[in-house]
Each structure stands twice: as structure tokens, then as C-alpha cells.
Design brief:
Elements (H helix, E strand, L loop, with lengths): L8 E2 L10 H7 L16 H20 L7 E4 L2 H15 L6 E5 L4 H12 L3 E5 L9 H7 L4 E5 L13 H10 L3 E5 L18 E5 L10 E5 L28 H16 L1 H22 L4 E2 L10 E5 L5 H7 L4 E2 L15 H5 L4 H4 L2 E5 L6 H23 L2
Parallel strand pairs: 1-11, 3-4, 3-5, 5-6, 6-7
Antiparallel strand pairs: 2-8, 7-8, 9-10, 10-12
The structure holds pyridoxal-5'-phosphate.
Length: about 400
């Protein structure tokens, strides 16, 4: 017997994920009996918290093949990205500095670059092809003598496209340029190895991988080569002076548990997600004439689907579906304003097509019955909305 469906079905896992119960269980003691400040090394309470933080640091470091001392805990990927971009620029002083990034990046990256550009940095924003892929040759072509860093996201939060990090990392290393990646959507979903990929800075976040909100990390290579970063937060000199402030011990413990589970279950979990996602795509394609996929068909996250449904307005569809499915247009982080997604526009979609697109994000707890129900509901509402439009 299948268990009854609980509505609405959550299909917005790129925005955030539910806390895995195993993560909550690991965190609980650090809210109650193990409440010590990890910086209070002169008593047992503090030492216990410190040990938990260092164990978590090792787990996170190992998951990306980094050294534990190169992990800096932050409040999330947004802070990590700000620290990396602004920190590097500010450490560079008044010398001319050039940076390279991509149009489809998350607003945390684009707006940080906009900020340092207003302070004198030169920033090149590279285009992507119609499937959202960056050509590594473009990176090589944009490098100048004063280029300091290249920042390319690992996996896109709207269209799930996975960029060729290895090729880009090799180009950066060849030219002695730092390579940064926003891995908020990638960590736990695809293998990441900062040595093999030549990554010098990597931003990640717990709440995208079934961990708690408000905790993340910046991997910053501090040797061979050493990436110089000016801190944004001054104070007690925590995190080797990179990020002052009392550590969020329960969050850090939960983050490590979330990473551990994601790695253990990566292979089976991703294969399962891909199966569900492909079934959903198939049902939508059969039921919705004219439906097109946005982004590369294969080089994308297993749980991601982003489709353009000509003739509808995605905002309207999402509201019509609200009882059945929780969906998003994709550009969650660009405030409440209804603007066409900068990512979809970068792929060459017209404003109308961009505003006729929806992002579907499947996750760890999504099951086949939910996918079937969601597909049915979407097909039905699209037919209804298209019928309304044509009867005017
Ligand atoms: C969610 C996300 C961020 C922001 O992460 P927070 O931890 O919520 O600040 C940055 N980049 C990408 C690609 C994301 O998906």
C-alpha cells in the first residue's frame, strides 16, 4: 500500500532542503548539554565544543580533498562568496586588479563583483552558450597580465548546469591565477576535489544539502599557493583571523553530518533522482505540446529540471499549482520583483520565454508517487491556462 500523498509536494530543493532527521539528531546535544564556546579552551565545556568543531572541519575538508586548516566556517555561501571576492580584492591594495566571472552566476557572486568594480576592480563577465555552458577557451582568452582570479560556479541554481571546472582550473593554474567556485549546489551532489580541479576558493552551504540554515564554509587555500584574503569581520580572530565571531557549534556539527550523509548516499541518491527527474520530464513532454528544456540536457544536476512552457506565465502557473506543488521560477534570490531570470536571458531566451519557465528541484525525500501527482497537476493546469488564454 502506498502511503497517502501529503500536499503540497515540495519540488523546490534548489532554494533550500528540509533538515535530514539524522542531522537534527547529531545537532541536538550541542543545543543542550554541550553548549560551550569553542574558543573557551580553559575548561571542559569549551574543549568539548572545540573538539566537535575540529572533527566537523576534518569531515568537510576530507569531502573536498582539502586540508582542515583551509576550511573557514561562515554563515552560508553568500558570506563565503563575499569574503572570497571582497577579501581578495581588498588584500590586493591599490595595484590594478582584474577578475573574470560568468553571466549565469548567483547574485551573491555578481553583486560582490559589482561592488568591487565600483571600488576600482576590472571585471569581465563571460557569456555562456545556448545550453548554459561556459567555453574554457573564453576564460583563456579573457586573461590579462593583471588578472587575479576566475570565478565560475560548479552547478547552477536555476538550470542545474555543471561547468567544466577541471579545464578551467587547469587554465588558471597555468597562468598563476586563483580559481574560485561557488559550490552551493554542487557539494554533496557531484564529486569535488580541490586538488584535482585546482580550486583555490570554494563556497558552500549546509541548507542546500539537508543541513541547517545559517551555516556554510569557505575553503581557502593557504599554502602552495597561499590565497591572501582580508577579513570582513574584525574581532576575536576566530577561524585563523579570517572570520571573527563565536562559532555556531550546532550548525557546524549539523553541516558535517549533512556532508557525511550526502557523500555516503551520493551514488545511489543521484541515480534515483535522475530516474525520477527523467520520468517527470517524459510525462511533461508528453502532456505539454511545445515544452522545451532550459540548459544542457546531460551536464546538469540529477534533481534539476527547468522547462519553458510557451504560452503561459510561470508566476500564474505556480499560483494555480500552489495546492499541489511548491515550485519556483528559479530566480529566488532576486527579491520579490517579477523580472525575467538573468540566467535564462543569458541562454538567449526572450523575456516572454524566460517568464514562461519554471524550475523543478527534486530531492532526497521525493518519491515516484509525488512525481506522478506533480506531473499530472502541471499538465492539467497548463492545459487550463492555455485554454483560458486562447478563449480571449
Ligand atoms: C543558495 C545559493 C547561494 C547562497 O547560499 P546561502 O547559504 O543561502 O547564502 C549561493 N550560490 C548558489 C549557487 C546557491 O544555490
Amino acid at each position: 500500500m502506498s502511503k497517502e500523498l501529503k500536499l503540497p509536494i515540495y519540488l523546490d530543493h534548489h532554494a533550500t532542503t528540509p533538515l535530514d532527521p539524522r542531522v537534527l539528531e547529531a545537532m541536538m546535544p550541542f543545543f543542550t548539554e554541550c553548549f560551550g564556546n569553542a574558543a573557551s579552551k580553559n575548561h571542559a565545556f569549551g574543549r568539548e565544543a572545540h573538539r566537535a568543531v575540529e572533527a566537523a572541519r576534518e569531515i568537510l575538508a576530507a569531502s573536498i580533498n582539502a586540508r582542515p586548516q583551509d576550511i573557514c566556517f561562515t554563515s552560508g555561501a553568500t558570506e563565503s562568496i563575499n569574503l572570497a571576492i571582497k577579501g581578495l580584492f581588498h588584500a590586493g591594495g591599490k595595484t590594478p586588479q582584474h577578475f573574470i566571472t560568468v553571466v549565469t552566476e548567483h547574485p551573491a557572486v555578481l553583486d560582490s563583483f559589482r561592488r568591487i568594480a565600483s571600488e576600482g576592480a576590472e571585471v569581465t563577465c563571460l557569456p555562456v552558450d545556448a545550453q548554459g555552458m561556459l567555453d574554457p577557451g573564453q576564460v583563456a582568452g579573457a586573461i590579462r597580465p593583471e588578472t587575479k582570479m576566475v570565478s565560475v560556479m560548479a552547478a547552477n541554481n536555476e538550470i542545474g548546469v555543471i561547468q567544466p571546472l577541471k579545464e578551467i582550473g587547469a587554465i588558471c593554474r597555468e597562468h598563476d591565477i586563483f580559481f574560485m567556485t561557488d559550490a552551493a549546489q554542487a557539494l554533496g551532489n557531484i564529486p569535488l576535489d580541490v586538488q584535482a580541479l585546482n580550486i583555490d576558493l570554494l563556497a558552500c552551504s549546509a541548507h542546500k544539502i539537508y543541513g541547517p540554515k545559517g551555516i556554510g564554509a569557505l575553503y581557502c587555500r593557504r599554502g602552495n599557493p597561499k590565497v591572501p584574503l582580508a577579513p570582513m569581520m574584525d574581532g576575536g580572530g576566530h577561524e585563523r583571523g579570517l572570520r571573527s565571531g563565536t562559532l555556531n557549534v550546532p550548525g557546524i556539527v549539523g553541516f558535517a553530518k549533512a556532508v557525511e550523509i550526502s557523500l555516503q548516499e551520493m551514488k545511489t541518491g543521484q541515480a534515483r533522482l535522475r530516474g525520477l527527474r527523467d520520468a517527470l520530464y517524459q510525462s511533461l513532454r508528453e502532456g505539454i505540446p511545445g515544452l522545451r528544456i532550459n540548459g544542457h540536457p546531460d551536464q546538469r544536476l540529477a534533481g534539476n529540471l527547468n522547462v519553458c512552457i510557451p504560452g503561459i506565465v510561470s508566476e500564474t502557473l505556480i499560483i494555480a499549482l500552489a495546492h499541489d506543488v511548491a515550485l519556483s521560477t528559479g530566480s529566488t534570490c532576486t527579491t520579490a520583483a517579477v523580472e525575467p531570470s538573468h540566467v535564462l536571458k543569458a541562454l538567449g531566451l526572450s523575456s516572454d520565454d524566460a517568464q514562461a519557465s519554471v524550475r523543478i528541484g527534486l530531492g532526497r525525500h521525493t518519491n515516484a508517487a509525488e512525481v506522478e501527482h506533480a506531473a499530472h497537476a502541471i499538465v492539467e493546469q497548463v492545459a487550463r491556462l492555455r485554454g483560458l488564454a486562447s478563449s480571449h
